[in-house]
Amino acid sequence: MLVRLRGVLNHLPRTRVPGRAAMSTTIHNTNQGCCNNPAVQSDYQPKGTIKPFGDFKRVYITGPPTSDNAIVCVYDIFGFFPQTQKGADMLADALRTTIYMPDFFEPDHPFPIEKFPPKTPEEKQELQNFFGTVASPPKNIEKLVSFGQALKSAGAQKLGVYGFCWGGKVTVISAGANTPFNAASIVHPAMLSVDDAENLTIPLSIYISSDEPLDEYNKILDVLSKKPFHAKNDHKNYSNMFHGWAAARADLKDEENREAFDDVYGKLTEYFKKNLS
Fold this sequence. Notes:
hydrolase activity; Dienelactn_hydro; globular; 9 helices; two-stranded antiparallel ribbon; alpha/beta
């Protein structure tokens, strides 16, 4: 685990200290959609239940009580949210596979939706503090890897993982050396970096919106095309969509958003069916 985390730390933002490198508590996120698009209220009633599993007291679990494989969802900074849970329910139904969504922020809470997007200097600092503490990537990468190992110990034969926005960053870094996962996917990921793709050891599918940096996306596709598992990867640029269209920021009363929402979960279904069979 220590070796893996050293590798993780090497690919996250740092500040220089004379004589050595130190981990920064500031997350450098230039995605304006990620920083400004608010969550959207939804009346969807999730089908799953919240139970303890592994080291977590709260895990949203949906799908059949048992399945040969398992898939982990890493939510965005808004935590458990109806649209994100709806997507997990759709995947579970389509794949007949159990989907697990741990509450990575426990015992704390997601970032308050009433303060997002942050408007005052104090709220902006509060968001930065959230990313440096509760949502610290290294801490949550360790949690995700440990959760995958717990699923393997419980009998899961193959594991998938997918993440949104902040969760996309946590997901893609967890897909490097010694990962317990067999396939990963990132949807409108924040802090997109080709360096993360260089370190992948398992297939990746990537689905971006118009708010993600297109040049970085194209560099990632180039790296993926040269991986030994290149035929197992997938990608799509939802250029008509905004950052967050498939998770807590999805407005499913909007027809165009709903169609893209259904489309990306269909792609996730086919991707995991191909890689976890």
